[in-house]
Each structure stands twice: as structure tokens, then as C-alpha cells.
Specification:
8-stranded antiparallel β-sheet; 4-stranded antiparallel β-sheet; 28% helix
Length: 281
């Protein structure tokens, strides 16, 4: 029997073991789970969309103010003679026409003066007095007739008659005593009618030049840019015009202004509170 060389045997053993180990490594590698896929970076997001709008100029602000209504004109009613007031013939706040009877004074003293003046004239005419005497007597009759007629006080204009400022039995007329020279009432014309209000200071500062140009125009040609709202919130159907603007009462306030509105139905009355405003010009 041939003997195996020890070196060959050792080599053979190492080779067999190596092949066995490689096989196990291949089996282990085959049975191991696959490695996870490499992490992926998140997909890039789209940039936000920014909308750009063209800047528009700011609209000029308007205003709104509380106003009180007044007659476009106000006529004071005075007695032309001195005497006792005995009757009021109109209703306060009512509409009156030119010539309507408002008050009556005690006419008896004036009737007596007229009767005497007529008697004096008749006497002078009967005795054929000098022409100058007759003319003087005739003038006295004329004056007495005028004074008697003045005991009936009528409306010189049409409009809304105001509160009576004297009571029945008062001594009224021209003079310097208590109550003398005081108007009996006033009559306000209400078509057109005025609205009086204080302009906000900022609106006045921003619009003073424009309003000044409007006020330089004749009233009937001024644009109707003002609006009126009644106390109950009802818009008034007729627009108004700028009528006048005063000077500011102080550095911190706006001026007092007047607007004028047509009032054909006389729905608006003096003393009412309303709102007056204007939007952008």
C-alpha cells in the first residue's frame, strides 16, 4: 500500500473545507432578504403662484353729515301799527299763500279815528274851507284808512308759517317797549329748501378747491351732486346743489355749509333733521 504524503492530505482537507464554506456563504447570501432600496429625495414642489394686480388709485371719499332744514328765505312778519292782538287766523306750521290773513288787532280805536277824520273832512268841505285845509283833512282820512287796514295782518309771501311769537291780548307793534318790534311770526319759503350742516374737516380740506369752483357758477347751473336721506332712512328723490360754505369755526372743525334741494311737494319742512352727503365727485 502506497502512503499518502502528509502535505497532500493537508492541502486536500483545506480545499474541501474551503469549497464547503463557499457553498454555505452562497446559500446564506441566497437566503438573505434583499437590501432596501436607497432612499429617494422628495420630488421638488412647484413654486407658489403669486398674483400681481395693478395698483388702482384710491377713490376720493365722500361725506355724510346731520343737517337741519331751513326755508330758502325767511320773512319776518311785523305789525305796522301799535295795538292789541286779538286773533290768530292761521295754524302754526301750515302752508299759507300770499295775502292769507294771519293776525287781527283790535280795530275799534282805528275805526274811531277814521270816523273822526271823515267828519272833519266833511265839515271843511261844507264850509268851503281853504284848499290847504281840505287837503290836510283828506290826508288824515287816508292815513286813518291805512291804519285801520293794518289791523289785519296778512302774509306778504307764500310758504310755511312758523310759531306765533305773541299771544292774544299782547300789546304789539313798532316801538321800544317790551314786545314791541318783536316779529309776530316768520314765513319760510320751502321750494326750494335749504339743508344746513357742518362739513367734516378732512372732506373740506380735500375738496375745497373743487367746491369753490362749483360755487363760482350761477346757482341754476351747479351740478346736483348732493343726496338727502330722511330721518327714517328713506332716500329723498331729488338731488341738491351746493349753496354756500362759511369759514371753519375753529382749526379742528369744518365749515358750516348749505345745500339747496327742490321741494315741489313741500314734503320737506323747516326744522326737520336729515342726512346730507356726497359720494365721489
Amino acid at each position: 500500500m502506497k502512503k499518502i504524503c502528509p502535505h497532500i492530505a493537508i492541502f486536500t482537507f483545506i480545499a474541501v473545507m474551503g469549497m464547503t464554506g463557499c457553498g454555505k456563504k452562497k446559500e446564506a447570501a441566497a437566503s438573505a432578504p434583499p437590501p432596501p432600496p436607497p432612499a429617494q429625495s422628495p420630488a421638488p414642489t412647484a413654486p407658489p403662484v403669486v398674483q400681481v394686480t395693478k395698483a388702482m388709485p384710491e377713490e376720493e371719499a365722500g361725506f355724510q353729515a346731520i343737517a337741519i332744514l331751513e326755508g330758502a328765505t325767511k320773512t319776518e312778519i311785523h305789525a305796522r301799527i301799535t295795538g292789541y292782538l286779538i286773533r290768530q287766523d292761521y295754524q302754526e306750521g301750515a302752508s299759507v299763500k300770499q295775502g292769507d290773513l294771519l293776525f287781527e288787532m283790535d280795530a275799534r280805536p282805528f275805526q274811531a279815528v277814521l270816523d273822526q277824520a271823515k267828519k272833519d273832512l266833511a265839515d271843511k268841505q261844507a264850509r268851503s274851507a281853504a284848499r290847504a285845509e281840505i287837503d290836510t283833512a283828506q290826508a288824515a282820512v287816508t292815513v286813518a284808512q291805512g291804519n285801520l287796514g293794518a289791523t289785519k295782518i296778512t302774509a306778504p309771501v307764500g310758504g310755511i308759517a312758523g310759531r306765533a311769537m305773541s299771544g292774544l291780548g299782547d300789546w304789539i307793534g313798532q316801538g321800544t317797549g317790551p314786545g314791541l318790534g318783536t316779529p309776530l311770526t316768520t314765513i319760510s319759503t320751502v321750494d326750494p329748501i335749504k339743508a344746513v350742516f357742518t362739513l367734516p374737516k378732512k372732506f373740506y380740506v380735500d375738496n375745497s378747491d373743487r367746491i369753490a369752483k362749483v360755487l363760482a357758477l350761477p346757482l341754476e347751473t351747479r351740478p346736483e351732486t348732493l343726496e338727502l336721506v330722511l330721518a327714517d332712512g328713506t332716500p329723498y328723490p331729488h338731488k341738491g346743489r351746493w349753496d354756500s360754505i362759511g369759514s371753519p369755526a375753529s382749526a379742528s372743525s369744518g365749515p358750516v355749509a348749505c345745500a339747496i334741494f327742490s321741494n315741489p311737494d313741500r314734503a320737506l319742512r323747516p326744522g326737520q333733521y336729515v342726512k346730507v352727503g356726497e359720494g365721489k365727485p
